[in-house]
Amino acid sequence: MAIAGRHVVRRPQPVTLLVGAVAFAGAVALGHALATVSSGPASAWIAVAGIAVAVLLTDQLTLDLPHGGEVERFGLTDAVWVAAIVLAPPGVPTLGAAAGALAWQVLRRVPTTKLVFNVGQVALALTAAEAIWRLPAETPAVTTPAAWALAALATCAAFAVNETTVAMAIALSRRAPLLEVLLPSLRVSVLQWSAVIAVGLLAAIAWDASPVGLVLVVPPLVLVWLAHREFIAGLVEREQMQDLATTAEQIARDRDPAARLPAIPHSGRLGELAAGLNRMLAELERASGRERHLMRAAAEELDAPVRRITRHLHHEEVAPAARARILADVEHVARVLDEMESVVRAGRPGALRPAWVPLDSFLSRVGAEAARELDGRLTIVPADAGAGAHIDARWMERALLQMLENARVHARATSHVELRVARTGGGWRFEVADDGGGVPAGHEEAVFEPFYRMSSAAGRPGLGLALVRGVADAHGGSAGIANRPGFGATFWLRVPE
Fold first, then answer.
1. Residue 400 within any structural domain of the chain
2. Which of 76, 159, 203, 388 is the least crowded, having the fewest Cβ atoms under 10 Å away?
3. Are residues 22 and 114 in the same domain?
4. pLDDT for residue 5
5. Residue 138: helix, strand or coil by DSSP?
6. Residues 64, 115 within the same domain
7. Which CATH number covers residue 414?
8. What distances in angstroms separate CA 14 from CA 172, 174, 269, one per listed residue?
C-alpha cells in the first residue's frame, strides 16, 4: 500500500544492503512463481495478465497523502491482491501483482533502485500470502466464512511484510528505531488494509458467482474509495492541525519572532490557514523589528552627542548655573537611553538566562536594595521555606526594584509598601502592594506603555513599568495591576513555574 510513496532520500550502506536483500529474495520468489505457472495450464498466463492490468488500473485511483512524516499511498490495488489470492491458481497472484507493480512504476518513472525494491517487496508479500492461503489440504469455497478468515490471515501476512520492509528502509536511512518509524502510521495502515480485505473479498465473491456480476460491484467500490479518501484526508488533516497547534504553542512559549508554523504541503483550507498565519507572523516580526530598531537607533544616535556634551562641559568654560542645568539634562537623556536599551534587550530572544533561584533569599536581596530609598516603609513577606522559581535573577531583580521605585515615587510618602511572592496558577506571582492612593481609574493598562507618565516628577522618563512588562513577557509570563483608586494598588509580575 505505501511501497512507492515513502521516500528514502539517502541510501547509506545498511539501506543498500536491505534493498539488495529484498530484491534478491523477491527474485527468488518470482522465480518460484514463474516455475509454478509454467507447469500449469496456459490459461494461467491469461490470469497473470488480467491481474497485472487490474493492478495497473487500480493504481490510478491511489491517493497520496503526507502522514507520520512520510507520504502514504492509499488505494484499491491491495484489493486486487486479495481477490487474486482467493481466485487464481498458485503462483499467478505473485507474478500478476509484481508485473502490475513494475508496469505502473515504469510509467511513473520511479528510480531504478526504488523500483527494484518495490517489486521485490510485492513479490515477497504475495508469496507469504499465497503460502498461508494454500496451508489447508483443501482450499475452502470462496463463499464460506472459512475462506474469508483464511484470506484475511493471508492478507495480514502480506501487510506485515509490506509495512515492515518499508519501515526498516526508512529507519536505516534515518538511523532511527524501527518502532519509531512503524507505529505513527500503523493505525491508518491497519484501517486501510481492513477496508481492502472487505473490498477484495466482495469482488471475489461476485466473480465466483458470475464474472459479469463484477460490473455491479464497481459503482459501490468507487463510492467506498471516495469515502475512504475523505476519511484518510480527515485523519491526516487532524494530524496536521495538531502539528500547527504544537508549533504555535512553542512560538508563544519561546517568543521567537522569526519562528513560523509548518507549511502544509498540499493546497486546501488548512494550507491556506497556515500560509495566512505565517504571513501574519511575518508582519508582526517586521512591526516588532521596526519598534526595536527605532529604540535601538535612537539610543545609538543620541549616545555619541551626549558623550561629547559631557566631555565638553568638563573641559570648557561654562557658567556654573548653566553647567549644572546642562549636566542635569544630559544625565536625564542618559537615563532615558539606558532604560530604552534595557526595554529593548529584555524583549530579545535569548536575552534571559533562567535558572532555579531560591525565593526567600532572592526577595531579601531585592528588599535590602530598596529599603534605604523607602525609608523603613517596606515590609518583605518571606517566601515559603524551600520555594524556588526558574527565573533570570538579574532581570527579575531589576523589574522588582522598578516596581518598588514606582511605589516610592507615586504613592504617598507615608504609605506602607509590601513585597511578596505567592504560588498561583502553575507559576509564581511577585507583588508590590501599597496603600498610597492607586492609579486613576482607566489607566491600568496605559501605565505599562513606554514613556507613559502619571506625574511630572523630574527625571522620570516613563519606561520603568514598560521594562517590568518586558521582563514578564520574556519569562513567558505577564504583568498587571490590581488597582484600588483612592486606596492603593498592587503591581504584580507573574512567571510560569
1. yes
2. 388
3. yes
4. 42
5. coil
6. yes
7. 3.30.565.10
8. 6, 11, 40
